[in-house]
Design brief:
mainly beta, Neuraminidase, four-stranded antiparallel β-sheet
Length: 449
């Protein structure tokens, strides 16, 4: 799904007007990659899902996996890069391909890292032939500059030997790699966290190892200049091996995990371009994990990495979002929308609010379930073309509202801390299709204190 710049700008304005509280939820897909660290992952609009490549599991892999929000699928492309870990995968929006650079072929000897460039088109991998490249490197920071239409990488290790990490900035335009001589420079960085904040129209980088110490500085890059951000208030502690992605839903960079001298970290932070804010719902401690934003599920997805000592490999899939995912289908008064008041808190009320209902008769049912459906097409099942089911209907509750709005409340949330459930509204709208109903987007929540 290629989102036009105008639509992205509108989404940024909407998100920035009200920063909804997000939380992590652990998914249990029926199939998944084996536990691994250092894999590369990004959203692929060609397959409308996430693509994960490689990683150390603990043997280095060249597998390509796809995740549709419900299940992981091992793909069998006609060609693929050699096995590697510590590479990054970036979605080149302008050209409609995914770009993979470098990475390390083995973790048991000391050959130099790779310096090859590969592109994924949704079906197979093709090795590109740029006229120049950034040289051997892995564990660098990477992102896609949406305005300048360049893949940007910074720093990284150029060898497994004890030499300082790189302080170079390189860009790829689909033809060649070019080293940028910048004004300002963050200095040597290995395993920094980096993403492009398109609300700010610039790259954001945090932390990393400078060859001597872990850092906690935040830097901006605009295509010619690196500038250290003047951050006030709290911020993440010094670390490397964290992951950071841009959350299009809320117009923030999301930073999670990493490591310091004590081992893997479990905290999550958001950065709006001015200040950092720690999120109240941590997840498992982890470092060197893969992370990407899924614009269809409207949430950040995290997979794998090393968990607590003694460096246990993880095969867990986690999602971080506002509790909204999927999409509704149009009715007589627009697309019905459903939002939760926040995460469900034990023994506290939890409310779902609906809008854009048929004002003449705003009633229907909400399906609450313990599982997420894989975008079940209701065209042939219920004669509802363009409508999809995203949650299992384990419990049905009805709603009735005034005008085009309605609400349903759970007066006192019951269950176990950590229990997760999903919901979607089926809205009465006579004549809109053969079944006479539309659906809203879906919501999810995890019970917290």
């Amino acid at each position: 799904m290629l989102v036009p710049l105008a639509s992205r700008a509108a989404a940024v304005l909407l998100a920035s007007s009200s920063l909804a509280l997000a939380q992590w939820i652990q998914r249990t897909p029926a199939s998944a990659p084996t536990a691994r660290t250092g894999a590369a992952m990004a959203f692929d609009p060609n397959s409308a899902g996430l693509i994960l490549f490689g990683g150390s599991a603990p043997l280095v892999s060249n597998q390509t996996w796809a995740y549709d929000g419900t299940a992981w699928t091992l793909l069998a492309p006609a060609a693929a890069p050699t096995a590697r870990f510590g590479a990054q995968l970036v979605h080149d929006v302008a050209r409609g391909v995914m770009v993979l650079y470098g990475g390390l072929a083995t973790n048991i000897s000391v050959p130099p890292p790779n310096s090859d460039t590969w592109e994924w088109d949704g079906v197979t991998w093709t090795q590109a032939a740029p006229t120049a490249n950034a040289g051997p490197r892995y564990q660098y920071g990477a992102c896609y500059d949406l305005v300048r239409q360049r893949t940007v990488i910074y720093g990284g290790a150029t060898s497994q030997l004890l030499i300082p990490p790189s302080n170079q900035t390189w860009e790829y335009d689909g033809v060649t790699w070019t080293q940028v001589t910048t004004t300002g420079n963050p200095g040597p960085r290995n395993r920094p966290a980096m993403c492009y904040h398109f609300g700010q129209n610039r790259t954001v980088m945090f932390g990393g190892f400078d060859g001597t110490n872990l850092t906690d500085s935040t830097w901006f890059y605009d295509g010619s200049t690196w500038t250290q951000a003047s951050v006030t208030g709290s911020k993440p502690s010094p670390r490397n091996a964290a992951s950071m992605v841009y959350d299009e839903e809320r117009d923030v960079c999301v930073l999670m995990g990493g490591q310091d001298a004590t081992g893997p970290l479990a905290d999550t932070w958001t950065f709006d371009g001015t200040k950092w804010q720690q999120q109240p719902f941590p997840t498992q401690p982890v470092r060197d994990h893969a992370m990407a934003f899924d614009p269809i599920g409207r949430q950040v997805v995290k997979f794998g990495g090393f968990t607590a000592a003694p460096n246990t490999l993880s095969d867990q899939t986690w999602e971080f979002g506002t509790g909204i995912y999927g999409y509704g289908c149009p009715g007589s008064n627009g697309v019905p929308a459903m939002v939760a008041t926040g995460p469900a808190r034990l023994a506290q009320p939890w409310t779902l609010d609906l809008t854009n209902l048929n004002p003449a008769i705003s009633l229907g049912v909400i399906a609450l379930g313990f599982s997420r459906l894989p975008n079940l097409d209701l065209t042939f099942v219920l004669d509802m073309p363009g409508c999809f089911a995203f949650a299992t209907p384990d419990v049905l509750v009805d709603f009735l509202g005034p005008g085009s709005t309605a609400s349903w409340s759970w007066p006192s949330v019951a269950g176990l801390i950590g229990d997760s459930f999903y919901g979607q509204a089926l809205c009465f709208d006579p004549g809109v299709n053969g079944f006479g109903f539309t659906v809203s987007n879906a919501v999810f929540t995890t019970i917290t204190f």
